[in-house]
Amino acid sequence: MRRRYFLVRSVNILLIAALVFAYQMIALDRQDKEAAALEKVKQQQAEQRKASGAAAFRDGEYTGSAEGYGGAIEMKVTVSGGAIEKIDIVSASGEDAQYLNMAKGVIPEIIESQSPDVDTVSGATYSSTGIINGVTAALRKAAGQ
């Protein structure tokens, strides 16, 4: 009797583990497909903006500032050939270093998309919002607004 009880429980545990593993594999595959589709859309949007000249900025270095988690974050945006080439954080003295390091992840996304219209970093929302808004302020100057 004990042997049968052990066998039934073992089979149940194996079935549950197999179902969890299968679900995880399906979820990862779906996530990969969604990420690839999103990347394709971002590339198409960037190409459309570039072709239409909508993202064209005046060449130069522009600064902008916005509030982050611990105060003002000052950004410097370098524009070359009408496109965002480089983004630097000039100062963020009130920011927590850990959150600021996480928030810096938006910088490559802004450069890649040639737009500050990117998602904030989860866990560093205020700091990444400060970076995004500082870049937006600098790009307004680059666009002559």
CATH topology of the largest domain: Sufe protein. Chain: A
Kindly name the structural category.
Answer: alpha+beta
The termini sit apart by: 82 Å
Strand fraction equals: 15-25%
Uncertain spans: none
Shape: elongated
> What is the CATH architecture annotation of the largest domain?
Alpha-Beta Complex
CATH class of the largest domain: Alpha Beta
**Biggest beta-sheet profile:** 3 strands, antiparallel
In sequence order, what are the helices and strands, one letter per element?
A: HEEEHHH
How many structural domains are formed by the residues?
2
Radius of gyration: 23 Å
- Count of individual helical segments: 4
- Would you report the number of β strands? 3
The largest beta-sheet arranges its strands as: 1-2-3
- Give the mean pLDDT: 88
The helix content, as a percent range, equals 55-70%
Walk me through what this model shows.
The chain has two domains: 1-54; 60-142, Alpha-Beta Complex (Sufe protein. Chain: A). Helices cover 58% and strands 18% of the residues. It has helices spanning 2-52, 97-103, 106-113, 125-142, and strands at residues 60-67, 72-80, 83-91. It starts with a helix and ends with a helix.
Give a concise summary.
The chain is α+β, with helices and mostly antiparallel strands and 145 residues long. The protein has helices spanning 2-52, 97-103, 106-113, 125-142; strands at residues 60-67, 72-80, 83-91.
